[in-house]
Write a structure and sequence with these properties.
- With about 140 residues, the chain is mainly α.
- It is about 40% helix and about 10% strand.
- The chain is built from 6 helices and 3 strands.
- It has a 3-stranded parallel beta sheet with strand order 1-2-3.
- Helix 1 runs antiparallel to helix 6.
- The protein is globular, with a radius of gyration of 17 Å.
- The termini are close together.
Length: about 140
Amino acid sequence: MDENDRLQMVRLALENEPHLKPCDYEFHLERPSFTWNTLQHLSKDYPQHEFHIIIGGDNWALFHKWARHEDILRNYHIIIYPRKDAETDTDALPSNVTVVAMPEMNISSTMIREKLAKGDPIDGLVCPKVEQYLNNIRANKTITT
């Protein structure tokens, strides 16, 4: 699935979220677009804003492997969404890293791609408009995992 499909799904998912806005900003950056690079460009282009990163606990477990992860930690706030498969030691977190108190959902993009590739239903895993979009894609081509 290409980046334009992903952007369209974000647009569909955010239709009723007035405080969130889909953006193709990264589409216009040099590739590969590492998070540090994106954050630097955003901070330069929009100095009046403060940027935070929201990642799953599974990504936090691998954060030390990200490009320029130490610079990200030094300059930005990170919000971790808990995941059942990735425990986060909240006592060892830097002061600018927060774990949100949210119910854990056992849903991942990998799981959704695998279900789509097998032809399994994805109802309840994504919003109805995104489900319809993905089912239309599935009807027209194969979705790879």
